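User: I'm preparing a small set of examples for a lab meeting where we compare how different chains pack in three dimensions. I only have the primary sequence for this one, and I'd like the structure in C-alpha cell form so I can line it up with the others. Please keep the answer compact; I'll paste it straight into my notes.
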Amino acid sequence: QVQPVESGGGLVQAGGSLKLSCVVSSGGTFTYTLGWFRQAPGKERDFVACMSRSGGNTVYADSVKGRFTISRDNVKNTVYLQMDNLKPEDTAIYYCAGAITDGTPTRRTWYNYWGQGTQVTVSS
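Assistant: Understood. Below is the C-alpha cell output for the 124-residue chain.
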C-alpha cells in the first residue's frame, strides 16, 4: 500500500517561508513521478509542481514559479516543497501525490496515490 504522508504545514506571515515534506512509504521515491497540488476552500485541487522519477525534469505552476522549489531525497524516500516569499493566496491544503507514469504530469487524474494533505495558511 503506497501512502504518501505530508508534514511541515503551518501558519506564516506573507513573505515568509515553509518547507513541506512528503514521505512515500512503499516503493521508494525513485519509483514514482511525484507532485504537489493544493486546494483552497471552495476551489478545485490545482497543480503546484512535479518532478520526474529521475529528478531531471520539473514543472511548476505559473503562480509559484520562482518562489517554490520541488526536490527529492531518494535515500530518505522523501519529496520536498520549499516555499519562499509566500502570499496570502498560497493559503490552501497541500497534497503530495505519486504517479506510476514517468514524466511531468500536471493533471491530477494522472496521479495514483495521494496523501491526506497539510494545511498552509499565509497571513497578510
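A couple of notes for your slides: The chain has no helices and eleven strands. The mean pLDDT is 93.

User: Perfect, thanks.
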